[in-house]
Design a protein that fits this description.
Structural class: mainly alpha
Helix content: over 70%
Order of helices and strands: HHHHHHHHHHHHHHHHHHHHHHEE
Number of strands: 2
Radius of gyration: 30 Å
Distance between the termini: 98 Å
């Protein structure tokens, strides 16, 4: 085989490039002195295991500076080591240098071990807030990094990022560096993510707890999810408590009405407004209808269609509500969001007294989101409201058995989803008073019978409940 001069030069150049790349990779992994690298790795690891962070710092810093790709543990352990040293470091100048290094750890991790940039940036922003919150400039800097993390992660944002982003913004409002409207806008953005994360965590926890053969890794994840859900609940409570004086329906409607003309060309502003008005259930207002329609005309997304569905449902324009919610359901790729749109369709059919269709859509909503009780509460409501019609022109007993079916569904919803307890308790208390009397049950010969078959627009075998 003959080689041209060009092909020989190409092979030589390629070989040199590969060799240079291998040399660079080795240098990043071991540094100029492999033996020193391994020795420092062993020393820092041993001190780290002992939680002796002060003595772990120097050998760890050697690796961080000289062997940045020796192991990812450099970046997983680094923040804990630095924070451990900071706790006992008296000198201000030394603390400042340690904080600079802490921030570099996050930046260097994203450079050498990419793939979780938003998560790591969130860790950086949270630590910036913890250590720099004493000054307005520190708050501004931490808020910018937290904003970057939130904008990148969206629904995957951690509870920590949501919490510190909101607190930093609140403090900047208090110092007059930001306006209350900035806090309200942020609340709109954060609350949507919190609602999504709550649904996702509830589903993941439910599915894990239903699995009797979890691996050790899955058990750890379940524990993390439960901790994250609790933290998220605390964040949500803090957000709502802080915003309570500023985010009443009356104030929000007034705010968005006054600012509408100046912002009607700003689609992001209108989306935040619609989201918050919807969350705070201020959906009877003209401004909500106006904003929702403009968003839908400008960008007919599933979320925009769902807002139009709310508007139509409020006006009892059921055909339009079905059209908008149907569009939202058909065009939404995310199953948690599909669950919400299917549920809204079920509510619409229920309002139209199309109970069978409403039940079908409620079950469809439940199929998209496991461990969710609301669809079963809706089915219980359908059973309760139609109970007397099912027994029309028949005995008083038959007119009341539907309440047994309703209560069965309410209890199922609560077993499935403990967050529904308050709603369920209210309904059970109400409909327990309307169940068949003991006399009627005796007359039907059912006092000692555990179950009863209801055949109406639905068929259910229900528990016989003797008052």
């Amino acid at each position: 085989m003959k080689f041209t001069l060009f092909s020989l030069l190409f092979v030589a150049t390629f070989s040199l490039d590969v060799s240079a790349q291998n040399e660079e990779a080795t240098l990043l992994k071991y540094g100029a002195d492999k033996e020193a690298c391994e020795q420092n790795l062993s020393i820092y690891t041993e001190f780290y295991k002992q939680k002796n962070y002060r003595d772990a710092y120097k050998p760890w810093a050697y690796l961080f500076e000289n062997s940045p790709k020796r192991t990812k543990n450099i970046y997983l352990h680094g923040p804990k080591i630095i924070k451990g040293v900071l706790k006992t470091e008296p000198e201000a100048s030394r603390k400042e240098g340690l904080l600079d290094t802490l921030m570099m750890v996050y930046d260097q991790r994203n450079h050498y071990y990419p793939g979780k940039e938003a998560f790591v940036t969130g860790l950086k922003g949270a630590d910036m807030y913890r250590y720099m919150k004493g000054s307005t400039e520190g708050l501004k800097a931490s808020r910018e990094v937290l904003k970057e993390a939130f904008d990148s992660a969206g629904n995957e944002s951690t509870a920590s990022v949501l919490n510190y982003y909101f607190i930093a913004t609140t403090k900047l409002v208090q110092t007059k560096a930001l306006k209350v409207e900035d806090l309200i806008s942020l609340f709109s953005d954060l609350s949507g993510v919190i609602a999504y994360k709550e649904a996702k965590l509830a589903q993941d926890i439910f599915e894990a707890e239903e699995n009797e053969a979890l691996s050790a890794k899955e058990k750890k994840q379940l524990k993390r999810n439960k901790k994250e859900r609790k933290t998220l609940g605390d964040v949500k409570s803090n957000l709502e408590k802080t915003l309570a004086p500023h985010a009443t329906c009356e104030k929000l409607v007034q705010l968005y009405s006054n600012r509408f003309e100046a912002n009607k060309e700003d689609l992001a502003w209108m989306k935040r407004a619609a989201k918050l008005l919807s969350k705070k259930e201020c959906t009877d207002s003209d401004i909500f209808f106006t904003i929702s329609e403009m968003i839908y005309n400008e960008e007919p997304s599933p979320a925009a269609a769902a807002n139009m569905g709310i508007r139509a449902l409020k006006r009892q324009d059921y055909d339009k509500a079905l059209e908008f919610y149907g569009y939202a359901l058909d065009n939404e790729p995310d199953e948690l969001n599909k669950a919400q749109y299917a549920f809204r369709l079920a509510q619409t059919y229920g309002a139209m007294d199309k109970n069978q269709r409403a039940k079908t859509l409620a079950l469809k909503a439940a199929s998209y989101r496991s461990g969710w009780g609301d669809p079963y509460i809706l089915i219980g409501d359908l059973y309760a409201k139609s109970s007397r019609q099912c027994g029309e022109l028949q005995t008083e007993f038959l007119k009341r058995v539907g309440y047994w079916a309703a209560i069965d569904k309410y209890e199922f919803a609560m077993r499935l989803d403990s967050s529904t307890k308050e709603k369920v308790d209210d309904r059970i208390l109400k409909y327990s008073e309307q169940m068949p009397s003991k006399t009627d049950i005796f007359t039907e010969g059912l006092l000692d019978v555990p179950t009863y078959l209801i055949e109406c627009w639905y068929t259910e075998t229900v528990k016989v409940r003797v008052p």
